[in-house]
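Bump. Still looking for Amidohydrolase C-alpha cells.
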Amino acid sequence: MSKILIKNAKAIVTCNAKDDVFYDSDLLIDGAKISAIGKNLPAEDAEVIDGTGKFVYPGMVNTHHHFFQTFVRNLITIDYPHLTVMDWIDKIYRIFQNIDDQIIYYSSLTAMADLLKHGCTTAFDHQYCYTTTTGKRPVDRQMEAAAQLGIRYHAGRGGNTLPREEGSSIPAAMVETTDEFIRDCERLIDQYHDASPYSMSQIVVSPCQPINCYRDTFVESVKLARDKGVRLHTHLGEGESEGIRERYGMRTLDWCEKIGFIGDDVFYAHAWELTQAEYEKIAKTGTGISHCPAPAVLGGFPILDIKKLQEMGVLVSLGCDGSATNDSSNELDALRMAYLMQAYHTKERGGSVSAYDMLKVATINGAKTLGRMDLGSLEPEKGADMFLVDTRSLEFTGAVHDPKNLLARVGVTGPVWMTIVNGKIVYADGHLTGVDEEKLAQEGEEVCTKVLRNQFPNYWK
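Sorry for the wait, here they are.
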C-alpha cells in the first residue's frame, strides 16, 4: 500500500468532534486511511507533498444529485425559475425520455469531474432516468465512470412506475414496473454494494418520488432495503404534498411513515414544504435531509432554517442537485450559497449557522447521512479523502487567519489545488490525473449533440 505525507501544511481543518485545527503540521496517509496527524512526522517511504501555504480540508460529501441532467443545462428555453416543480418536470421529462446510456456515461463523467475539482470526494447520485434506450445500464455506466476518475460513488437506483394516464408526469418511455425496479435494485446491490470500511461503491434504493410511483413501489423498496441492509432515499416535501393528499388523503411524510419509508437509514431531498410537526417527526426518527440550495433559490422556495433544524436534532447534509436545476456540480459553490442563504434567518432568530457549521454539514454530516462513519473528518483511521487549497495567491491576502470559516465566508468556489480520494491523488495542478480530459470532453459534446441537440433543436438555440 502506498503512503503519502503532506508535509508542513499551513492548517489542517479536521471537522472532528472537537473541531481541531492543526497548524504547521503533517498528515500521513497509509493506503486508504489516515495514519497520523502531527508535527515532524517521519517521511519513511512516503511520497512527500509540500504543504507549505496549504489548507487541508476533509473531502465534501454530496448527498443529492442527478448526473444525467448535466447534458440538459444552460437552456433558457426550459426556465426553471418561471415554472412550478411539477410543471417543470412535465416539460423536461419529454427530453429525458430520449436519453441513452452514452449520455448517462459522459454526463456522469462531467458531473463527477466538476465535483472532484471542487473538493467533493464522495458523491451520491439519484439516477432515475431509465428509458427504453438506456435499458438497465445507467448505474453500471456510472460505476464505470466513477472508477475511471477515482471518486467514491454511492448510486441511488431510482425509478418511476406510475404512468402518465394514472396521474403522473412520466412519459411511457420512462415508466418501469415495480417488479422491474426491485429486481434491478437487487442486482445492483449484489454486484456493487460494498459495506466494508473505505468502500468505493454502494447502492441506495431510491424510488424517484411518491407522486410518480405506485404505493407498492415504496413498500417493496422498504422491504428490499431493510433485507439487504442498504439505505433509502427519495424526493419529499418539494411541492407534491397537495397532490399526495388528493390521492391518498394525507401529506407525503405521513404517507411515507405509514409504509415505513422513514428512519435513520432514510434521507429525503429538499423537504422545504414541511411543517414544524413534520420536522420534529424527522428528528425523532433520525431521518436525514439533503439540503439543495441552488434549486431552492432558482425556484423561489422556502429556505430551510438549518440552525433551527439542527437544534431540533435533524441531520442536515448538502447536495448540489441536478444540473437542470443548478447547472453546476460545484460543491464549493453549493456550500457558499447555502451559507449565504442562512443569513435570511439571522435577524428573525438572532443568529445563524457559521461558515464552519456549513462546512460540517457538507462533510461529516454528509458522511453520516450515507452511513459512512469511516469518512467525513480528518483523523487517524478515517478514510484518506481530502482536498487542499493553496492560500499563497494574492486573493487570499488578509483572510488566512481563520481557516475553518474561510471557504464559505470568503467564497472560495474555484478549483482546489489538489483532491485526494481513498489515499490516491485524483486531481492536482488543474488536471484530473487518470484520464484524458480533452478527449472525454470532445466525445461528450458529440454524444450530447447527436442524442439531444439534434432531436430538440428548439430547446438548444
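Residues 11 and 403 are 7 Å apart (CA to CA).

Edit: fixed formatting.
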